[in-house]
Amino acid sequence: MRVRRARQFMKVLSVYERCFGLATKSLEIFMDHTFVRQALMNHVNISESIANMVGRNFRPVTSSCVIAECQAIGALFSGALEVLKGYIPLTCRHEYNSALGAAWCIRKRIRTARRRSKIFRRIKEGEKCFLFALASNDVELQALARTVPGMPVLFIAQRCLNIEPIPKTTQDIIDNLTLQSLAVNACESARLKQIEEKFGLQKEDCMKNKKKKHGPSGPNPLSCRKKHLSITMTDPNSISKRKPRQRKNHHRALRKTWAMRQVLKFYGISSVHAQPTPSSLPAPLLSTATCNS
């Protein structure tokens, strides 16, 4: 199961890096208090789990609004507060508003990433990537992050770290990018026409192979079946009478048991069906044989 989850992580991150320019070599993971609290409740080591799935080159960050909200809630998020203080805090330009909460600040960051990340290719050296990975168990934040192409979503479930698969909207964009990369542009098509004219590779209508019309098929020469004779009513001699079925009379052979072999040996008879001679019969049997004759 762990190997399967690691493969899913690598698949999603590699696709986002190739198509949307996500910086996976120094991946920035934004964590909120819901993600950290679920990790503590499920006894999940966040740093070790992310390192096993993503690698050691990741940058865990949080915001000052998230830390301020944990402090405002109190003892319920005291453990999450201690963990979040160990991450890199991103200073917000606005002050924390208890009426809006830290979710408003995170939604603003997600919208900014969606507005500025319009590079549907692998980033080059020197280009800045505005995409980041969102680690949150908030359902609303996860739904908003799915609308951003190339933003992976991490969450805690079943006592392990998980990543959401590629959404359908993002998959449609990836398919369109793949078709565009495989299509032939105008410059390439003009170059192909020049090559065809130069080497005489143009297609001619007269060189097209026409379909061969097959006539009625004859008998198969490899067939083992006999040819049936066509019988006409005008020729009565051609009608062959059916031969009567001859049945063979199979005589049931006597079973040569040990007792039967002793009798045959006593009378000097070699076969069961052989007729004994009068000289070979004893006196009582000889008298009965003469009387019967």
UniProtKB/TrEMBL annotation:
A GO cellular component entry from the record: small-subunit processome
Pfam families cross-referenced by the UniProt entry: Fcf1, UTP23_sensor
Keyword Cell inner membrane attached: no
Basic residues composition bias: residue spans: 240-253
The UTP23 sensor motif region domain, residue ranges: 210-227
Region (Disordered): 208-253
Record keywords, A-Z: Nucleus
PANTHER family: RRNA-PROCESSING PROTEIN UTP23 HOMOLOG (PTHR12416)
Protein name per UniProt: Ribosomal_L7Ae domain-containing protein
